[in-house]
Amino acid sequence: MKAILSDIHGNLEALEAVLADIASQGITEIYCLGDIVGYGPNPCECVDRVMAKCKLSLLGNHDQGALFDPMGFNASAERAIFWTRKQLESGRGPQADRRWEFLGELPRVHREQNLMFVHGSARNPLNEYVFPEDIYNQRKMEKIFGMIERHCFQGHTHIPGVFTENLNFLTPEEIDFNYVLRQEKVMVNVGSVGQPRNSDPRSSYVTIDGDTVRFRRVEYDFRITQKKIYDIPDLDNFLGDRLADGR
């Protein structure tokens, strides 16, 4: 049994709540699909937690933006990336060095048996979004499914759910938060720990037990994270406001 989470975005309160929920189920194998940093007020602490707790972590586009020149971000996200980089650069000592080494060595794709793990999509593991409305873009979906052997787990959009090869998108609520993996190809978006955008402020992640994927929701005190964001001039207040609504 393993837990798969994504898009922490420097939200320490959400990450701690999710890790506690995972531990309460006796799960010790944790995969992170990227975007540990960006947007949130605790990038260094979140990198430290992921290094300590996750067996696997992938590179997300915000992680890459903090490492190199950010490309394709809006003004607010870019300002947050530069502030995040400053926090990482201001660290001193072995732990600060380990953070840079860890982020710099993150892979973009991981495969095991018939499972694939990416941040964005099988076609563009770092940057491509696969939104629920893409089920109406047959050409795009066919190309992405053509690069998947069987089952692909991804994040990036912050919207949890299951994409089927016959072009349906199933929300966790529609499938009672459980989905059984069978022979058909599917893409499973695990949602976001630290910046949910599915109109639910709770953190989202999934567990896999055999062939069964379970979508989890975890409450945390987003008001603490909001206050931290409001107190940092380089982080747009909107990044805190949206935590209350999951948008």
TrEMBL record:
InterPro entries, A to Z: Ap4A_hydrolase, Calcineurin-like_PHP_lpxH, Metallo-depent_PP-like, Pesterase_MJ0912
Q: Name one GO cellular component term.
A: cytoplasm
Gene3D superfamilies in the record: 3.60.21.10
Domain Calcineurin-like phosphoesterase: where?
A: 3-209
Alphabetically, the GO molecular function entries are:
phosphatase activity
Name a Pfam family for this protein. Answer: Metallophos_2
Top-rank taxon:
Bacteria
Indicate what this protein is called per its UniProt record: Phosphodiesterase
What residue stretch is flagged as signal peptide? none
Record organism: Planctopirus ephydatiae
Q: Which family does it belong to?
A: Belongs to the metallophosphoesterase superfamily. YfcE family.
